[in-house]
Amino acid sequence: MSQHNSDNFLGGLIAGTALGTVIGLLIAPRSGKHTRKVLQKSADAVPDLIEDLSTSVQFQADKLSHTTLQNWDSTLDRLKDALIAGQAATRAEFSKTPADPQRD
């Protein structure tokens, strides 16, 4: 699964869980006072959920950044090798060609 899809899935999972909890509490057969207490506890937990999500997203972003840098370094190394091979092939090709008499 791609990084973007993972983040979307995680965010959707948390939002869906929170929404399902609120709806379940609102339609549950409890007294209003008890339901308000449960809702208050749930609301108090939201900052912790947001912090956990933020930490997870930051970790994934750092991981993606590290992977991107590794891929970039690998690409630069391959490009350097290709340029060196191209220069060597060009030198070899020019050394095989006889000198142009009109150029002398």
Can you tell me about this structure?
The N and C termini lie far apart (64 Å). This protein has one domain (3-95). The protein is rod-shaped, with a radius of gyration of 31 Å. The protein is built from 2 helices and no strands. With 104 residues, it is mainly α. InterPro entries: Desiccation-related_membrane, YtxH. This is YtxH domain-containing protein. It comes from Leptothoe spongobia TAU-MAC 1115.
Q: Any idea what the shape is? A: rod-shaped
Largest sheet, if any?
none
Portion of residues within helices: over 70%
Query: What would you report as the Rg, rounded to the nearest angstrom?
Result: 31 Å
Classification by helices and strands? mainly alpha
Total domain modules: 1
Order of helices and strands: HH
| Total DSSP helices | 2
Low-confidence stretches are none
Provide the β-strand percentage band.
under 5%
Give the rounded overall mean pLDDT. 80
Number-wise, the strands total 0
Distance between the termini: 64 Å
Transmembrane segments: 12-28
Protein name: YtxH domain-containing protein
Organism: Leptothoe spongobia TAU-MAC 1115
Pfam families: YtxH
